[in-house]
TrEMBL record:
Keywords, alphabetical: 3Fe-4S, 4Fe-4S, Electron transport, Iron, Iron-sulfur, Metal-binding, Repeat, Transport
PROSITE patterns on file: 4FE4S_FER_1 (PS00198), 4FE4S_FER_2 (PS51379)
Source organism: Paracoccus spongiarum
Cofactor annotation: [4Fe-4S] cluster; [3Fe-4S] cluster
Protein name (Swiss-Prot/TrEMBL): Ferredoxin
Family matches, as SUPFAM superfamilies: 4Fe-4S ferredoxins (SSF54862)
Pfam families found in the cross-reference section: DUF3470, Fer4
Family matches, as InterPro entries: 4Fe4S_Fe-S-bd, 4Fe4S_Fe_S_CS, 7Fe_ferredoxin, Fd_C, FdxA, RnfB_subfamily
All residue ranges annotated as the 4Fe-4S ferredoxin-type domain in the record: 1-30, 31-60
Record flagged with keyword Membrane: no
Function per UniProt: Ferredoxins are iron-sulfur proteins that transfer electrons in a wide variety of metabolic reactions.
Keyword Transport: yes
Length: 112
């Protein structure tokens, strides 16, 4: 099992999760985060820390695409290990449907 970041992180990018991760497996894009599925140790401490409820275990239905999404971008983006301010749009975008198609950016974030 692994944990993955889903589309509700897009345009929010809360980083409470990276602060508690014991293995530094979060990677930062311009407007979202991902978890490297091969580095995640399945401890689950990140899931309850996410204010947007964007982190899910891969054992939930239809998570295969998110495992591959997280894998792809974790290999392209820089690691992030320290908490940063969320995006200014975080509160208004939390829970908005269709964020992957409408708002996702492939650009990397700054990392640490």
């Amino acid at each position: 099992m692994t944990y993955v970041v889903t589309d509700n992180c897009i345009m929010c990018k809360y980083t409470d999760c990276v602060e508690v991760c014991p293995v530094d497996c979060f990677y930062e894009g311009e407007n979202t985060l991902v978890i490297h599925p091969d580095e995640c140790i399945d401890c689950g401490v990140c899931e309850p820390e996410c204010p947007a409820d964007a982190i899910r275990p891969d054992t939930e239905p239809d998570m295969e695409k998110w495992v591959e999404f997280n894998r792809k971008y974790s290999e392209l983006w820089p690691v992030i290990t320290q908490k940063k301010d969320p995006l200014p749009t975080a509160e208004e975008m939390d829970g908005v449907a269709g964020k992957l198609d409408k708002y996702f950016s492939e650009a990397p974030g700054e990392g640490d």
